[in-house]
Amino acid sequence: MKFRDFLRILEQEHFTLVRQAGSHRLYEAVVEGQRRIVTVAGHRESDEIRPGTLASMIRQSGLPKARFQR
Predict the structure, then answer these.
(1) Positive/negative CA dihedral, 17, 56, 49, 24
(2) Is 62 helix (H, G, I), strand (E, B) or coil?
(3) Is 11 inside any structural domain?
(4) Distance between CA 14 and CA 64 in Å, rounded?
(5) Residue/partner pairs of 31-35 with CB below 8 Å, 24 or more apart
(6) Is residue 6 over pLDDT 90?
(7) Could you point out which of 13, 17, 45, 64 has its C-alpha 20 to 30 Å from the C-alpha of 34?
(8) What's phi and psi for 38, nearest 5 deg?
(9) Would you tell me how many other CB atoms lie within 10 Å of the CB of residue 38?
(10) CATH number at residue 11
């Protein structure tokens, strides 16, 4: 999955960009009554996300893995 695809899903799920420091962007939303913050560390939106990084960002989001399937 590319960073741009991941960001598109976050935005569809009402995550908003809270702040950015260099290549790290922090997105925030309330998911199932809990405040969730996802750190997206990507230099270019066209880059592929490494599997471990993707799994971590999905866990942070609190969204179901199926939402991120291609």
Answers:
(1) positive
(2) coil
(3) yes
(4) 15
(5) 31/61, 31/62, 31/63, 32/62, 34/62
(6) yes
(7) 45
(8) -115, 125
(9) 24
(10) 3.30.920.30
Please state the domain count of the chain: 1
Q: What is the dihedral of CA 7, 57, 17, 5, to 10 degrees?
A: 0
Q: In which domain, by residue range, is 15 found?
A: 3-63
The amino acid that residue 43 corresponds to is H
28 assigned to some structural domain: yes
pTM of the full structure: 0.89
Q: Tell whether 69 is covered by a domain.
A: no
**Cβ atoms of residues 39 and 24 within 8 Å:** yes
Residues 13-43: pLDDT tens digits? 999 999 999 989 999 999 999 999 999 988 8
Looking at the DSSP bridge assignments, the partners of residue 36 are 29
Q: Is residue 70 part of a domain?
A: no
Interatomic CA distance for residues 62 and 53, integer angstroms: 15
